[in-house]
Design brief:
By secondary structure, the chain is an alpha+beta fold. The protein has 2 domains: 156 residues, 2-Layer Sandwich (Alpha-Beta Plaits), CATH 3.30.70; 89 residues, no CATH class. Helix content is 39%, strand content 16%. The chain contains 8 helices and 10 strands. It has a 4-stranded antiparallel sheet with strand order 4-5-1-6. It has a 4-stranded antiparallel sheet with strand order 7-8-9-10, with no helix packed on it. The protein has a two-stranded antiparallel ribbon with strand order 2-3. The chain is flat.
Length: 261
């Protein structure tokens, strides 16, 4: 299967644009892949063999929906969503534009300048996506009146309750709905090996580059580890251990730092 071209903007661009809104809104699509039917002529590429017991004959099955792990699934899911936006842009012009620009796969990160506009986005996005068999859930906002409207107008039992605390995940970044953003850092675990150091550095998820100078220091340490020729589970040297622990201690200062929207 072909992978297909890239249809959505980079994660960083979506997040940066989302942060410019006075009222921020987030949601995601329930079981996005399961909502997209594969063309009949392509279902043969998703055949599987199955029998409940060894005494029964093997039966052929075909998966008729998008399947996780197939190369073309991400492209087809996004293409279907964008085709829906194109088909309904006359009826829902604003929601159609949002669908094409403010989704990262199944995650919606959008916003507005007024409460009325935010509520209109909530209603129109639900209506538009319903026409394509999609359903939005996990709605959240930094505006209490918009949140209350979303809570009162829950669409059915499939929609999960709104977040009751202020901390929400937005495309992997911690977002405090009270207009600040916090950094989530990994906990220290023993023993400290090359595998552990690389794992901890990989967890410094920073798509907007808030802590880029700090991440660079961590990458220098990774270079030193490779030059030492250590195995994955070998304990690092005392010198590098001291350097790493000091780096970890300094991370605590960043964890307490909050970036304002």
């Amino acid at each position: 299967m072909l992978v297909g071209p890239k249809l959505q903007q980079d994660l960083r661009h979506i997040l940066m644009r989302w942060r410019t809104h006075r009222i921020c809104i987030t949601a995601d699509i329930i079981k996005m892949y399961r909502m997209v039917r594969v063309a009949d002529e392509d279902t043969d590429y998703q055949r599987l063999l199955w029998r409940p017991t060894t005494s029964e004959q093997v039966k052929h099955y075909k998966l008729v929906r998008l399947t996780f792990g197939t190369a073309s699934a991400p492209y087809l899911a996004v293409k279907t969503l964008q085709r829906l936006a194109d088909d309904e842009k006359t009826k829902f012009p604003a929601a159609s534009k949002i669908t094409k620009t403010d989704f990262y796969m199944d995650d919606l990160s959008t916003g507005s300048e007024t409460e009325d506009e935010a509520i209109s986005i909530y209603k129109d996005m639900n209506k538009l996506l319903n026409l394509g068999g999609f359903e939005l859930q996990k709605w959240s906002s930094n505006n209490e009146n918009v949140l209350k409207y979303m809570g009162i107008n829950k669409r059915d039992d499939h929609e999960l309750p709104l977040k009751v605390n202020s901390l929400v995940k937005v495309l992997g970044v911690n977002w405090n709905r009270e207009t600040v953003y916090s950094l989530n850092l990994p906990e220290t675990k023993e023993p400290i090996t090359k595998r552990r150091v690389l794992s901890d550095v990989a967890k410094l998820y920073d798509p907007l580059g808030w802590i880029a100078p700090v991440v660079v220091i961590a990458k220098f340490m990774i270079q030193k580890l490779w030059k030492m020729g250590l195995g994955w589970d070998d304990t690092i040297s005392e010198e590098l251990m001291s350097e790493w622990l000091q780096f970890r201690d300094n991370l605590a200062h960043i964890e307490r730092k909050k970036e304002r929207k």
